[in-house]
Design goal:
The protein is an alpha+beta fold and 299 residues long. Helix content is 25%, strand content 27%. The chain has helices at 75-87, 109-124, 131-139, 145-150, 184-188, 202-205, 218-223, 230-236, 239-248; strands at residues 10-29, 35-55, 60-64, 92-98, 154-157, 162-165, 172-177, 255-256, 263-267, 281-286. The strands form two sheets. Strands 1, 2, 3, 4, 5 and 6 form a six-stranded mixed beta sheet that branches. The chain has a four-stranded antiparallel beta sheet with strand order 8-9-7-10, covered by helices on one side. 42% of the residues are buried. Helix 1 (75-87) packs parallel to helix 2 (109-124) and helix 2 crosses helix 3 (131-139).
């Protein structure tokens, strides 16, 4: 039995990073209603933190370290149950979650928590599942979960499960999240959502990139495409426009990330980020080359 298969008693300070969508195109819709997407997902060092304790009685429980942040049945518990169902494991765990990534932001916070739970419980329980096996379980929980299990920045297609690793240079960003959120379901069900953006290719995307397909220049990425969900979100939540205008007033070119209300911009130099409304979250962060738990499961 390898060290990754040996059951443990406790895993502490386990990271669940957020992501930014550098662009997000909706290229179609499947008969089952799922939308077909193209995007580049980028990991950032804004993280939730989870703690896992083995339960000898086989029970599953979750404790919020930031009270009131989560519903009683969240993706952490759903991930734990899905992992037990897929493997027949009868072990239990107590999960403590320090939630820092805002909800309804489009940053994949819930999906990242679920992915971290699958990776960490696979280790805590000594199951030895490979990355692809965990990703298959994760896809049933949410379209973004396989990305976080994959552990690398990626060109993303399909409903989020088709991933091509991509290398990004280090950069600094500011993310702005207004107090109001937007429902992913409401955005994707909006009748005015653009659902037929022309399909791009990673080859075309990187055609003028001297670094090669797997080392795309970040400025090229930020200049590429758009977020098809942004006009719908702006109509549902005018605060998105206000956040973008706030960034623009500071010389920053912002874009909405994902299907939430957070917007972001790259910072090429120091910027005065004071003066935001008290109920906004304004957070500086850096991108990450790999998920902190990349080595916790094997390919």
């Amino acid at each position: 039995m390898t060290s990754l298969q040996a059951p443990l008693r406790q895993l502490l300070n386990v990271a669940a990073p957020a992501k930014l969508n550098l662009f997000l195109h909706v290229t179609g819709q499947r008969p089952d209603g799922y939308h077909l997407l193209q995007s580049v997902f980028m990991l950032i060092d804004w993280c939730d933190t989870l703690h896992f304790d083995l339960r000898s009685d086989g029970g599953l429980s979750r404790e919020d370290m930031q009270p009131g942040k989560l519903p009683p049945e969240d993706l952490c518990l759903k991930a734990a149950r899905a992992l037990r169902q897929a493997t027949g494991c009868d072990m239990g765990a107590h999960i403590r979650l320090d939630k820092r990534i805002p909800a309804e932001a489009g940053m994949g916070g819930g999906s990242s928590d679920a992915a971290t739970c699958l990776i960490a419980l696979n280790r805590l329980w000594g199951l030895g599942l490979k990355r692809a096996e965990l990703a298959a379980i994760g896809l049933r929980l949410g379209a973004d979960v396989p990305f976080f299990i994959g552990g690398r920045n990626a060109w993303v297609e399909g409903v989020g499960e088709q991933l091509i690793p991509i290398s990004l240079p280090p950069a600094r960003f500011v993310v702005v999240k207004p107090a109001t959120g937007a429902s992913t379901q409401a955005i994707f069900s909006a009748p005015n959502l653009q659902r037929a953006t022309k399909t791009a290719t990673i080859q075309g995307f990187a055609a003028n990139n001297t670094h090669g397909l797997l080392a795309c220049d970040l400025q090229d990425l930020l200049a590429f495409g758009h977020n098809d969900l942004q006009p719908v979100a702006e109509a549902l939540c005018p605060d998105v426009v206000e956040c973008l205008d706030w960034l623009s007033a500071r010389g920053l070119r912002g874009r909405m990330t994902g299907s939430g209300t957070a917007v972001f911009a790259q910072m090429l130099q120091s910027v005065d980020l004071s003066g935001a409304p008290d109920d906004w979250v304004v957070h500086e962060c850096s991108n990450m080359d790999a998920h902190p738990l990349l080595d916790w499961c094997t390919d």
